[in-house]
Amino acid sequence: MPAQLLDGSATARAVRAEVARGVAQLQAQRGVTPGLVTVMGGDDPAAQSYVRSIARQAESAGIRCRHQTLQVDRGDAGLQDSLRSLNADPEVHGVIVQFPPPVPLTAGAIAAALDPRKDVDGITPANAGGLVLGQPGFVPSTPLGGLELLQRYGLDVTGMEAVVVGRSVVLGKPLALLLLNANATVTLCHTRTRDLGAACRRADLLCAATGKSGLITGDMVKPGAIVLDFGVSPGPQGKLVGDVDFAGVSEVASWITPTPGGTGPMTTAVLLRNTLRAAQALTPGEPGR
Ligand code: NAP
């Protein structure tokens, strides 16, 4: 039987509706409108399109969203000045910086300057450390959205063999930690993994997060496994494709995310929810996170 779809678009709509209700309540009770700023230095078309999509969805949830372009020629100092002024702006509750930062801007400079309470995509050392230590804080939206998708379908990862392919700071590593915190037994794979197929075939839950289209084929998947595809690459005729050979893997897996319409929409929905939470926590009189 072909795998059932984990419908990220429909689930994300439900999350966004909840966020919109939370925003309306915050406005009614405390007169606060959550504010999100997207920050970008380069002109990567995929990042530009993501930023436009965040803005559209934020506005429809009642979140004020604006974009700030960085002056690349001012280097790290310019970036840090921009972030410090956003830290100090009471109308800004969340900041998301598009990665990778353009040369010569560095990820370290961003992490050092951004207020962790406004770090709604979980990139600062304080929030990344909180994830390792199991403490409250913001977690990168893409892995958090993937886990939430499973939860909303009632798929409990406790005790599962989970295999994550890809170990980036924004996706693979935090995903592995989230799964570990949710009591899965986790294996993290990368380009130096000796036998990727063998590792993947052990997985009850297989998460592909590499950006290499077609990397995961049906013969690498255990029958009945759940497959989350985070990869996004340009495919034929301008369509986006994931890391997973969808047709082949659907014949073997029990549940699978499509691309597009799987993990992608969840990322933005969870980012908006994090922004609402930041606004709630930063509002005077509210107990801390
Ligand atoms: P990244 O920083 O380039 O990291 C890719 C990771 O995949 C690296 O850890 C790399 O291993 C590993 N990898 C690459 N080829 C591999 C192979 N053949 N076998 C095993 N591991 C391999 O990318 P990223 O930022 O994590 O993004 C990954 C993908 O997710 C991209 O397609 C990106 O567009 C997508 N993405 C999606 C969302 C969403 O909302 N769904 C959000 C963010 C990113 P090494 O560490 O050994 O090099």
What is the CATH T-level topology of the largest domain?
A: Rossmann fold
Secondary-structure element string:
EHEHEHEHHHEHEHEEEEHEH
Q: What is the terminal-to-terminal distance?
A: 45 Å
pLDDT < 50 runs, ≥5 residues: none
- Rg (C-alpha, Å): 19 Å
How many independent structural domains?
A: 2
> Looking at the structure, what is the overall shape?
globular
What's the CATH H-level homologous superfamily of the largest domain? Answer: NAD(P)-binding Rossmann-like Domain
Explain the overall architecture.
The chain is an alpha/beta fold. The chain has two domains: 29-118, 3-Layer(aba) Sandwich (Rossmann fold), CATH 3.40.50; 141-265, Rossmann fold. It contains ten helices and eleven strands. Strands 1-11-8-7-5-6 form a six-stranded parallel β-sheet. The protein has a three-stranded parallel β-sheet with strand order 3-2-4. The N and C termini lie far apart (45 Å). It has helices spanning 8-30, 45-60, 75-88, 107-113, 125-133, 141-152, 172-181, 196-201, 246-250, 263-282, and strands at residues 4-5, 35-40, 64-69, 94-97, 161-165, 185-189, 205-208, 226-229, 233-234, 240-241, 255-256. NADP nicotinamide-adenine-dinucleotide phosphate (NAP) binds at residues 142, 165-168, 170-172, 189-193, 196, 209-212, 215, 230-233, 263-264, 267. NADP nicotinamide-adenine-dinucleotide phosphate binds next to helix 10.
